[in-house]
Amino acid sequence: MNIKLTLAAQQINEAEHHDHNDVIWYGDGGAGTLAENLTRIQLTAGVGNAFSAGQQIYGGTEIEGGSPARKLDFHSILVTAVSAANNLYILQFIGGTGLIGDGTILTHYSGFFPATGKAGPIYSSCRRIPCNYTIWVKTKCETDGATIDIMVGPHTYRQL
Prior knowledge:
By secondary structure, the chain is mainly β. 9% of the residues lie in helices and 44% in strands. The chain has 1 helix and 11 strands, in the order αβββββββββββ. It has one helix spanning 2-15; strands at 27-30, 33-35, 41-44, 55-58, 70-82, 88-96, 104-112, 122-123, 129-130, 134-141, 147-158. Strands 3, 5, 8, 9 and 11 form a 5-stranded antiparallel sheet that branches. β6 (88-96) and β7 form a beta hairpin. The longest helix has 14 residues, at 2-15. The radius of gyration is 17 Å and the shape is globular. The relative contact order is 0.29.
């Protein structure tokens, strides 16, 4: 009985193996890509309390060389600035291999942020996708056209 429990625990541990380390914050690498820099990703909310059309922020090659054998999630974001203080912002992350409309919703983040944007990281459960997928973000806010500046902290996993 004890041997079976040990084997089961090892299998669970191996199935959930991923790289836990200090978060590496990624910023805007230009042309819809990420880079290990301090350039914030600026997102603009839609109009009429609707999501924006969406903005590509990850091109599918920046993390782990875009390896389809590795997975990632954007489980944490860091809000660095907002244009509409203390308004509700909702960010919707979408991932896929084709166009944004064909993608899958990975997670939503929402919150009220101070004008200084000095809130700590925000964590959310996020669907894992292969590192070679593209990721877009749609944004909405109580204030039409409001902006929010973020950085993302992806987590990587190896597929078993």
